[in-house]
Specification:
By secondary structure, the protein is of the alpha+beta class. It contains four helices and six strands, in the order ααβαβαββββ. It has one domain (3-138): Nuclear Transport Factor 2, Chain: A (Roll), CATH 3.10.450.50. Strands 2-1-6-5-4-3 form a six-stranded mixed β-sheet. A hairpin with a 5-residue loop joins β5 (114-125) and β6. α1 runs antiparallel to α2 and α2 (22-32) packs across α4 (65-81).
Length: 139
């Protein structure tokens, strides 16, 4: 996979979170992630602190496999994008090292015309360029 392909990958990745058509969203999830691919998210600090207070050493949220990944992407779309409040955008171009692609993304409030958040994405790819592991660090 070339640097151009890595950029295309992250454009499709960001696109799936903004995709209004459920059929296209599902197809894109299946195209982007391997069948047993995983999306790992370190939760917001408040949720993380609560988990630690309950005796967990750390808190990580995970969606594994196409069904859970589709549900995760769909929930984010419905909560943030569908109401017309936010869109997700690429903030920093793809960087590639062997099977790893990283990039920064942002959430943009369309009504207020300002960036409201974002994070770092760390993707581990299989030999065909599909996502095996997706590590999301929200700022």
């Amino acid at each position: 996979m070339s640097a151009t392909d890595a950029q295309d990958l992250i454009e499709r990745y960001i696109g799936v979170w903004n995709e209004p058509d459920p059929g296209i969203r599902l197809k894109t999830v299946r195209d982007l992630w391997t069948e047993d691919g995983v999306h790992l998210l370190r939760p917001p600090q408040e949720m993380h602190d609560r988990a630690v207070s309950l005796g967990f050493g750390t808190a990580v949220l995970a969606a594994r496999g196409h069904d859970e990944l589709y549900a995760r992407v769909t929930r984010a779309y419905e909560e943030f994008v569908a109401p017309g409040t936010y869109v997700f955008r690429i903030q920093e171009a793809a960087r590639r090292l062997d099977r790893v692609v990283t990039f920064r993304w942002e959430s943009f409030h369309t009504g207020e015309e300002r960036v409201t958040g974002g994070g770092l994405e760390f993707l581990v790819l299989d030999g065909e360029g599909r996502i095996e592991a997706d590590h999301q660090f929200v700022d």
